[in-house]
Amino acid sequence: MGEVKEFLLQFLIASLPAFLFPLTNTMRLRRSFNDEAASADSVYRITLGFTLTCALSMILCSLFSPRLWGTLHLDFAILPLFALMLYSRMAEGVFLASLHLLLYPVFAVNPTFSGFILDTGLLLYPLVLFFSKSFYRSGRKGKVAILSLFFLLGELMITSSPYLLGTARLEKSLSLLAIAGMNIIFTIFISTLFVWMIEHTYEKEKLRMQVMQLSRNYFREAEKLQQMMDAAPLSIILLDRQGDIMTINETFIQLFRRYKPQARKEELIHSRLAPVMADLGFEVLIERAGQSLEEHIKTRELLQSGDKTYFTSTSPIQKGHTDETIGAVVIIQDITELETFRKELNHVERLSLVGQMAAGITHEIRNPMAVVRGFLQLMQEKSPPTLDNYYRIVMEELDRANSIINDFLSLAQNRSVRMELCSLHDIIRELTPLLWADANLRGQSIEVRLDEELPDLLLNQKEIKQLILNLGRNGMEAMGEKGELTIETRKRVDGVELSVKDQGPGIPAAQRERLFEPFYTTKSQGTGLGLALCLSIMERHSGKISVQSEEGKGTTFTVFFPCPENVESWM
């Protein structure tokens, strides 16, 4: 029984690194699997801890190694040595091998060089280091086989050392055969235990970290999905199989708070859909969601709640490519503004149709008006001179009506115009005599300031002449006698500015907002088409027109023409 106790003691001491490995390295393994930055440091600490436990086990095995029957040397110290050499790096393996060699003269009874070679298993060291890469790539059974083979060879060298060196005689003995058999059994068992404990610890922690990584990925993807839902301009509700609310987005919270300002997201999660939809006045969605869950039906419909219009849809959520429904999604979109825009667009289309009809009718009116004017001229020639004043008044009114018709047609037709590169200054100089003539009749003056560095612009000369005449005559009509009209051009980085400034009484702010509306006028006999026509002209030229006015100090209309390259890019 004493021999069995010695075997068990060596077994326990040699197995010490295997038993301590899961206790000392579990947290370090987690760090190495979890944090790439800490991986190298964790591996170093794992190797260091394993090296120290193997060294301690090797020293204790050598310290308590007995001589069975005074002859057989029982020493399992080579097991932690070979395990470290196979599992760890070469540096740690060489260190522990050197330590094992140094322990031999300390604990050996009669140290000899031959005994040093056999009792330390020195001849196996190069083979163990050579097979370390194959050991690393092997599975668990392969590692057990490699470690058991080298351990068994080492133990055979140690136990056979006295017989090979001639210090003991080889005799047939049942005890010797029993010791040899026990040695083989313990060698295989302890090698298996050693590999199993280390590999099981690695696999267990790796599996644990994989589960944790999957959990982190799941929560990360769930958070990304929630952020995407919160960013969507739609109210989204996800339901589980029982019709309970799993999650909602921020847009739905804002919608729900219109009816319940104190509502919180946590109160709505995991609640039933029915009371939530009842609070919103969408009871019909309760039935629609039930149809999606039970009958796999998708629904879409418009709902009215107060003065708001909503587009709603419900759809089943199915598991993979199967027909199994695991939930449903309810989407609510506030389309009140879209409905308003649609109605306004329909209204604009009807107005456009009416405008086209009016333009056609107005165009046809000009022909009989021209005939009437012609016959009036013939009648004037045959009438006494006393009636000339009446004929003049009638023909002036006909001319004014014709002018209004021309302005209306120009505004209503919104036709494309042909443009060409030309000088704005040439157009202004061509119109200056006409404006001066009007100014002289009113007792007013005109000042023209032209920037000589002005580039040529893409213009339709006929429309720009009409624009300048309209703005100039409006300014003259707004001023009293001795007023001055200023026409000025300025070069800007991105285009050209034309300003027409008068010294009239100015325009109140309330009227300025409506100046460019068709048929709105501040004059007693105005038509309200002049400025609307100017705005239409500038829109066709990809430009802008604005007004600045101060009561008592006058009004300035500013027209901006973009540079030709900018116009081409817009067109």
Automatic annotation (TrEMBL):
Keywords: ATP-binding, Kinase, Membrane, Nucleotide-binding, Transferase, Transmembrane, Transmembrane helix, Two-component regulatory system. InterPro entries: HATPase_dom, His_kinase_dom, HisK_dim/P_dom, PAS. Residues 360-565 form the Histidine kinase domain. The chain crosses the membrane at residues 7-23, 43-64, 76-107, 113-132, 144-164, 176-198. It holds the Pfam family HATPase_c. The keyword Transferase applies. PANTHER family: C4-DICARBOXYLATE TRANSPORT SENSOR PROTEIN DCTB, SENSOR HISTIDINE KINASE. This is PAS domain-containing protein. It comes from Paenibacillus brevis. The lineage of its organism: Bacteria, Bacillati, Bacillota, Bacilli, Bacillales.
